[in-house]
Amino acid sequence: MEIALIILAAFVAVFLGVIIVRTLLFTPKSSITPDTDEVIFNKDKAVENLQTLVRFKTVSYYQKEKEDEGQFSSLLESLPTLFKKVFASCEVKLLPDRAILIHWKGKNDGDPTVLMAHYDVVPTLDEKWEKPPFSGIIENGVLWGRGTLDTKVTLNSALCAAEELIGAGFIPENDIYFAFSGGEEVNGDGAVRIVEYFKENGIHPAMVVDEGGAVVENVFPGVKGACGLIGIAEKGMMNVRYTALSGGGHASAPKPNTPIVRLSRACVRLEDNPFKMHLTKPVREMFDTLGRHSNFLYRMIFANLWLFSGVLDLIAKKGGGEMNALLRTTVAFTQSKGSEAPNVIPPSASVISNMRLNPEDSNQSALSYLKKTVKDEKIQIERLYGVEPSSISETNCTEWEKIASAVASTWKGCIVSPYLMVQCSDSRHYNGFCNHVYRFSSMDLTSEERASIHGNNEKIRLDCIYRSVEFYIRLIKKC
Ligand SMILES: [Zn+2]
Description:
The protein is α/β, with parallel strands linked by helices. The protein has two domains: about 45-235 and about 390-479, Zn peptidases (Aminopeptidase), CATH 3.40.630; about 235-385, Alpha-Beta Plaits (2-Layer Sandwich), CATH 3.30.70.360. Helix content is about 40%, strand content about 20%. It contains 15 helices and 15 strands. The protein has helices at about 1-25, 45-55, 70-80, 85-90, 150-165, 190-200, 260-270, 280-290, 295-305, 305-320, 320-325, 365-375, 400-410, 445-450, 460-479; strands at about 90-95, 100-105, 115-120, 140, 140-145, 175-180, 205-215, 225-235, 235-245, 330-335, 350-355, 380-385, 415-420, 435-445, 460. The longest helix is centred in the N-terminal third of the chain and has 24 residues, at about 1-25. Zinc ion (ZN) binds near residues 122, 150, 185 and 454.
């Protein structure tokens, strides 16, 4: 008996020892050495140009008749005046679906770098804004306006960087393409046309950079400092409709299981039985980078996921939000429809869920999970629209080093980490065509600023515009 106890105690001690040692060894990886050269450019011009771009009401709508096509073409027509040197020395192609491709010839004919952005924006609720969203007002070092963050800033910064470098006589090592679309917010085909153009002309990008992560604080448990998050994949998306039918009838004498009751049960089942957690490569690499900078408790969890992945799963399920979205396919019920009158049982009722698919899932696998979990053959489940998750880009390559170094050099002291983007971007059209697609919006954002993207009072600090241009200058110099 005594021996058994001693063995058990020894076993527990070794077990705890392994956990503690692994935690203690889980220390920050050697960080990237930032470039020390100073980047000089015309800061006033960068602000003025962005201000001009914001004033075009390039608002995308799913209902095409609401769009003002003139605003989109006026923005494009303004570019040669705003970026004179770029347009004097680069080849410009206008492609269908409001796509514009600007080709800057490099010294060599290695594979080119593609810098993407979109110049359309989402609609505004003007009455909720403190300043008019399309006036480009500058007050107290802040430029207000729809699109300042998403993504007119990166379009402007990339071109300002080129304008500055061309003026200084700089020629990139390899070709650079600026690839901009004007319908990203409504799943427009501008980026598709650009990818088609590349394929038809035998152009194979070495690296693609599009919107995505940013430099942010307080987004990872236990990490307070700034993190430069570069998306190496993005989740898929699917809209699903659940419909329940009945014989209808008057609400005064209902039978059990009316359509809304059935649908409610389905919603609850799906909330109570979330999709399985998957530690995909982007998330694993993110935990392995940022987890090392976290507090002892979280370091213990992230260093010992072989043991604590269940705990992590539980924390994510209970808390929801971004941590949960990184780990699994999510289901958000967003719309519902019932009877036309309060006293009529609906002959047909429906709810719609918007789903974000983990890289391990597909539209097909997610749909079968929904059917299996709802367990009600009388509920019809149909896919309305879907985008597959993107492929996952490499991080063990020179392309990753270039972008990671440009981030670390612009935002000195930030922790650069791979990340899984939970929204969709135009860069998904490079799936299977380029495996160095990096999703990074070159800005440092507060949580309030992040909330203003697609929300009210979108605005950017002028010093954030400067750093955005600096990032592109540093990046282009490496390409
Ligand atoms: Zn957007």
